[in-house]
Amino acid sequence: MEFLVIEAVVGVMILRYLFETYLDLRQYAVLKLPTLQLISQGAISPERFRKFRAHSIDKSRLYFVHEFATTLVDCMILLHNILPWLWKRSGSLVLCIGLNAENEILHSLSFLAAMTLLSQIFEFPFSLYSTFVIEARHISNERTIGQFLKEWLLGQCTSLLLGAPIVAAAIGIVQNGGSYLVIYFWLFSLLGSVATTTLYPRFIAPLFNKFTPLPNGELRRKIVNLAASLNFPLEKIFVEDGSGRTTHSHAYMFGVQKKNIVLNDTLFKQCRDTDEITAIIAHEMGHWKLNHTVYAFVAMQVPVLLQLGLFFFVRQSNALFQMFGFDTQPVVIGFYIYQHIVMPVQRLLEFCMNLLSRSSEFKADAFAKNLGYGRALRAGLIKLQDFNLSVVNTDPWYSAYRYSHPPLVERLNALDESMKKSS
């Protein structure tokens, strides 16, 4: 019976891999097209399109290798009972350093540390190749090996320091939640989500990037005036020093009552027209004005509660733990079993959330257009695509399944259609 259950889970993993690989192959075929999908005449030069195409094809090839290797390793972990073996070894490690292995929290932290280490060892060569071969070949990556290793180590230490108390609290809630486990855990995840949203940009992000106030000038004046016209609760405008590591650019905002705007410094190299940068900010303010963040947050609670209910079912099933090779029912192992069993449900929920996110992006674009920034936003989006070497040609099935943001061709078509109607 144990073998049949493990075999069924592995079978579902392989079917998911085959389905997603089919979509990836559809996208790969589109990427190899020698011509640009029609957006409008002259949107992107033939030379830049060739660079987009070469960059996307290289990334896609690496992704094929990564996904095959990941699926193979995941299947081997289940078929060869690596999880119960690693759980026992991590308990022995706790004993070796003189701690109580019967303490589930200590045992779980040791197990998660081992799993994280193995995962990072697996991912490390892919990250190196992506950064120092693909990105350097097509985008002129600015990071050195030393910077890469420093950021990697800092990220691991940050995850450890933040993750350990969160895992300990989660285990405590599951152990003592009783029949109200789902409610308690939902409240815990809710507080964690709010804390992450508010604390990360203020305390964690500055560990990786330097934030300086946007100096006085035309751009600052335009953003301040735009915020005032929308009654946007603007507090500060920061410039983030991202150009030392990459040419990718972005803008975002954070804060609960008072909002702070962050502009990546690469934006100033890519969009020299202040109207284009203001248009991008108008798009972000559109998300705020249309309450997209609130709606997405509320909508997310439905799948969260559903998944917590499924986890509660897994947690209560002693037979499932035995089928996966465990005599006890550790909380952290329950999460691993849950992830493998409900994977199809997880993919479906992610697809639904992608649809909601894509809809919000179109509406935010329309909001900026209605403020008079349609042409500026259009030009800014093309320039960001141009410098970031993002995917241009996309397969509609792949796009609908994979992307939380609509690709450039869809956004420009929607903007063009809207501006035609307005004129």
Automatic annotation (TrEMBL):
The keyword Cell membrane does not apply. Gene3D superfamilies: Metalloproteases ('zincins'), catalytic domain (3.30.2010.10). GO terms for biological process: CAAX-box protein processing. It is found in: Endoplasmic reticulum membrane. GO terms for cellular component: endoplasmic reticulum membrane. Residues 213-417 form the Peptidase M48 domain. Residues 41-210 form the CAAX prenyl protease 1 N-terminal domain. Its EC number is 3.4.24.84. The chain crosses the membrane at residues 153-174, 180-200, 294-314. Proteolytically removes the C-terminal three residues of farnesylated proteins. This is CAAX prenyl protease.
